[in-house]
Amino acid sequence: MCGVIGYIGPKPCVDIVFNGLKRLEYRGYDSAGIAVLDQGRIALAKAKGKLRQLEPLLETLPKQATVGIGHTRWATHGPPSTKNAHPHVGETLGIVHNGIIENFQDLRAGLEAAGAVLKTDTDTEVILHVLTEELKTAASTKDAILKLSKILKGAYSLGIIIPAEPDALYLVKQGSPLVIGLGKDENLFASDAAALVEHTKKAIFLEDGEFARITAHDCTIWNFSGAVVKRDATELEWSQDSVGRLGFSHYMLKEIFEQPNAIGSTIARLVDRESGAVNTQQMALHRLNIDGIRNIHIIACGTAYISGCVAKYALESLARLPVNVELASEFRYRNPCIDKSSLLIAVSQSGETMDTLESTKYAKKQGCQVYAICNVQHSSIAREADATLYMEAGPEIGVASTKAFTSMVLCQYILALALAEARRIDVGAEKSAALKVMAALPVHIEKILAQSAKIADLANKYYQSRNFLYIGRGEQFPIAMEGALKLKEISYIHAEAYAAGELKHGPIALVDRNMPLFAIAPMDKYYNKTLSNVEQVRARNGRIIGLGSEDDEKLRKIADDFISCPQVAVPVLQSILTTIPLQLFAYYMALRRGTDVDQPRNLAKSVTVE
Questions:
Q1: What phi and psi, each to the nearest 5 degrees, are found at residue 281?
Q2: Catalytic residue flag (residue 605)
Q3: Residue 370 pairs with which residues in a beta bridge?
Q4: CA–CA separation, 591 vs 598, rounded Å?
Q5: Domains 251-443 and 452-593 alike in fold
Q6: What are 287-343's pLDDT values in tens digits?
Q7: Is the Cβ–Cβ distance between 73 and 19 less than 8 Å?
Q8: Which helix (H) or strand (E) holds 419?
Q9: Which positions ≥6 away from 531 have C-beta within 8 Å?
């Protein structure tokens, strides 16, 4: 889950690489480093911690250097430290690596038996030594990399500088993302296109089993058989402004406030409000054999998994197909009952989540049709799928997902409508109601965001709590899960979510004045049942934060504190609205506790390792 970047061209590269690392720091912030090539030697600066620890060391690098590579780390092998920070440098090359080498212990043992001295705990240093040895006997760097590709097992994207070839950078991709940015008399590479948009809008996305040589003027790609690969550049749609904070104190807060636009843009692209028609072309349903689908499996991780738990209600109700929602990290290991009659829906903000990607590949081997829902065009999962629905969320930099989550829920709901129509199921009544609700969603979200100061005050009241319970029923139970996850991720408060009716089957034993309970209770078909569960907590002296409809006097009366939320007629779309106060609450709780909101400890945005 590390971030890698490199530059080659006529400009001094230290600041270019460092600023690119700023765009990538969401991928890892245990340590960072930069290596540049100058007058036949590699100069190196690296430090433990975040980029601000590296910044003072940039003065030690040659200002005139025009070739460089950089890395920001999320530790897998070896603890965060300066010695384990990338780049790793030897006498003949320097290297940055994102991924995991699965056979590195065997390789390390072989290298040490041959007399090599390894100075770090990382699997990356093993790559450095293996490639160094291959370069000694290979006819060319290309041949050495071909041999390296047959030795390494696992997932990796590599950026390599070689003093003997000062006019080139070498890149290798197998399992971890890597994109080349094509500029005018300059070229770059990075783990994520967000790091490139400041310099170019033209990009080439490397596929697994490919490597490349880039100079300031050209780019040559080969596959692991040594054959040249021809590929046209892709035009990037994101702008430099879209990956900045734009005056907000944190990316997370900016992204929370971007939800009216993200939701509105998605609706505008996928639904014709006048005719009520779903744009099946944009949804790529023509690429699927709809009549052959007998069951659906949604696979995802983290927040994306929770979005699938919400979507299950709509897909089963509207499309009348049985739906399983599966954790991608578990899915392919249990020999699931899937075949050509199964539609696998892979949900991933980045499109690079390793567990989801590998489950996608597994499902395709079993004959499944695969439909991806992603936020990043040309990502690995999108390329692997038979059809892809792209969200309109725009770049999401904050580690805790906000606008991507609500966009995932919306996209899956619209997919449920489209599948119902494709299966010739009459959903006219719900669709009519949904069109009215969707037209008003951005306004409703704005109304919730206007309560941010009130929610901040609420966080001031509860920020010293060490534990939280979240409850909801039906579509709101997954939203309780999402609320608890957000609180855990960024405030480090222990929080658990339960279906409200399950409280009396164990969790209610935890209730006291030191265990606040967040009750999500819109006026839906579950309302009276949920209210009864809240009353049970109140009877046991529990502290209750109620999240309910604006005119809900019952919940307002029994709750210690109350947050109002617009009420809409479609439960899954209601869940989008109830999510947003929970995002704001988690944000302000973290802010009050002084944690790093955008870069919470031990986490990274794009999980590209298993």
A1: -65, -45
A2: yes
A3: 344
A4: 10
A5: yes
A6: 999 999 999 999 999 999 999 999 999 999 999 999 999 999 999 898 899 999 999
A7: no
A8: helix 403-422
A9: 521, 554, 555, 558
Query: Are 24 and 198 within 8 A, CB to CB?
Result: no
DSSP string, 528-592: HHHHHHHHHHHTTT--EEEEEETT-HHHHHHSSEEEEE---S-HHHHHHHHHHHHHHHHHHHHHH
Side chain identity, residue 4: V
> Is 309 a known active-site residue?
no
392 three-class SS = coil
Tell me the sheet residues that pair with 71.
4, 33
Distance CA 311, CA 304 (A): 11
Give the CATH number of domain 251-443; options: 3.90.79.10, 2.40.50.140, 3.40.50.300, 3.40.50.10490: 3.40.50.10490
Residue 239 has what pLDDT?
64
> What token pair was written down for 253?
């807060």
DSSP codes joined into one string, 170-197: EEEEEBS--EEEE-SS-EEEESSGGGTT
Q: What are phi and psi of 349, to 5 degrees?
A: -60, -50
Edge-to-edge strands, sheet with 517-521: 494-499, 467-472, 517-521, 544-549, 561-565
Query: Two tokens at 381?
Result: 């999962």
| Cross-sheet strand order for the sheet of 228-229 | 88-89, 94-101, 154-161, 169-174, 210-214, 219-223, 228-229
Residues contacting residue 73 through CB under 8 Å, at least 6 positions apart: 2, 28, 29, 30, 31, 32, 80, 84, 85, 86
Residues 6 or more apart whose CB falls under 8 angstroms from that of 225 comprise: none
Residue 77 confidence (pLDDT) = 85
Helix (H) or strand (E) holding 454: helix 452-462
Residues 389 and 415: beta-carbon distance below 8 Å? yes
- Domain residue spans in the chain? 3-243, 251-443, 452-593
Report the alpha-carbon distance of residue 452 to residue 437 in Å, rounded. 23
The list of the chain residues with pLDDT below 70 reads: 1, 238-244, 246, 604-610
Count Cα neighbours of 496 within 13 Å in the Cβ-side half-sphere. Answer: 12
CATH 3.30.70.260: does it fit domain 452-593?
no
Neighbours of 60 (CB within 10 A): 10
Superfamily (CATH H level) for 3-243: Aminohydrolase, N-terminal nucleophile (Ntn) domain (3.60.20.10)
The separation between CA 164 and the C-alpha centre of its own chain, rounded to angstroms, equals 38
